[in-house]
């Protein structure tokens, strides 16, 4: 799973809206090389994201493992918590 900062859509003034600044884009990459892009709030629990990914890929959630830079990501975590733990930008 890789993580990148939200590009943010500009409002009429060319500034990113508050809603866009509160969101992050996450790319889930499978072992087969396939990718699924999600755009979620920074406080969105990974649990729901992981379940959706497993459903789309026809995987068993109970046996799937999700990693970021070699670190396992727990379902109860959020993008904001992971950023603080790893020192990366969500």
From TrEMBL:
InterPro entries the UniProt entry points to: Rad60/SUMO-like_dom, Ubiquitin-like_domsf
Under PANTHER family, the record lists: SMALL UBIQUITIN-RELATED MODIFIER
Q: Where is this region: Disordered?
A: 1-23
The record's section on SUPFAM superfamilies has:
Ubiquitin-like
Q: What is this protein called?
A: Small ubiquitin-related modifier, SUMO
Q: Where is the Rad60/SUMO-like domain?
A: 25-81
Alphabetized Pfam families for the sequence = Rad60-SLD (PF11976)
Low complexity bias spans: 1-17
Which region is the signal sequence? none
Q: Which organism is it from?
A: Corchorus capsularis (Jute)
Superkingdom in the source lineage:
Eukaryota
């Amino acid at each position: 799973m890789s993580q990148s900062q939200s590009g943010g859509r500009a409002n009429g003034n060319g500034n990113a809206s508050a809603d866009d600044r509160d969101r992050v884009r996450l790319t889930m990459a499978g072992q087969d090389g396939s990718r699924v892009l999600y755009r979620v709030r920074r406080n969105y629990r990974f649990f729901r994201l992981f379940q959706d990914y497993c459903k789309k890929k026809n995987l068993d959630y109970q046996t799937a493992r999700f990693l970021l830079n070699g670190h396992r990501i727990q379902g109860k975590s959020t993008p904001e918590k992971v950023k603080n733990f790893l020192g990366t930008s969500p």
